[in-house]
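Hi R.,

Here's the chain you asked about this morning:
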Amino acid sequence: MQPTRQHLIDPEICIRCNTCEETCPVNAITHNADNYVVDASKCNFCLDCISPCPTGSIDNWRVVERSYSLEEQLEWEDLPEQLEIVEDSGDRDEALELEVQNLLQQAHAGQGGRSVRPVSASEPYINLFSRTEPLVGRVAGNYTITNSETESDIHHIVLDFGASAFPVLEGQSIGIVPPGRDESGRAHPIRLYSVASPRNGERPNHNNLSLTVKRVIESESGEKIPGLCSNFLCDLVKGDTVEVTGPFGSTFLMPNAPTANIIMICTGTGSAPFRAMTEQRRRTRPLAEGRLMLFFGARTPEELPYFGPLSRLPASFLDKELVFSRLPGKPKEYVQDRMLTRSGDIARLLQDDETYVYICGLKGMEEGVEASFQKICSDNALNWSDLIATMRCTGRYHCETY
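And here is the predicted structure, written out as tokens:
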């Protein structure tokens, strides 16, 4: 039997966010209470599901003589090892690799294709710790960073890892293992949080990191139910311990080149990776040639995380647009609206091959942002469809929404 390549999902790091199943255009991905799986008879290797996956669990492949069935995949606790193909399959393996590379090139060529790491970004460490072998972090601090009188309860949480190495880069995420089990006796799914501190730690040269966490109230049938993991984290006190997995993320990474212009667009806790990127630039290259531009949206100043520190950063270092949608006596304004007021500045940056765009926040915000980019380009004699395709395949356009 001739070996083939099969697309699989790693159940050990999948956080069951359902993004892959929603994204798949041929309905090849399904799930049960335990696992998300890929139907080999339907998967056409379009790779549409790869980029949106926040953990990289979707980006797994095996050369097989017989495809693993859905029934087999649904019972997995971890991925099987690559089976040794006894036959002389050198030519076939080479052809399979060439086929995958061609598919990757096709995916990179169009809007919505798989993003890649910026050329100057550092090589990330990924999946060093898992649910079965987590890293234990100790809470070094838990601080409320929004006004207590508002509905938005957002915390800045610092985790210290002592002597255990846990290298992370700006733009990566970590997984938090919520304690306890659900009504069926199963462990709770891992929740993912973007790291809000630069690579050398929240406190420089210490083995720690920070997270930006909003206390979530989930509504189910009209009943208010606290978010399991967000409330667990927000209620932590100094000295408590947390089980951590990861790091995750290999493409949404900060370029290291001092000439890199970085346009950051976010809402709420989507600011976490941009705080990390901004701090890294401030600590290492405050006079870098590359420009930093931030569009940050919230309902009011009191609900905008890090509003005080952001306000103190000089415009010469960070060109910031803080946008509020619920100011008394003023019309609603969102980040995509403010982008249009800076059309000329954005258009000039987009024409620079050293410009990188990052979008992070609530799912759906990317539609309005991309519509604004489209109008900005149209108004400035630029072709947005061609530009975004080029930026994606060169690691200069990244979107992470949840």
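One quick note: The longest strand covers residues 135-144.

Cheers,
M.
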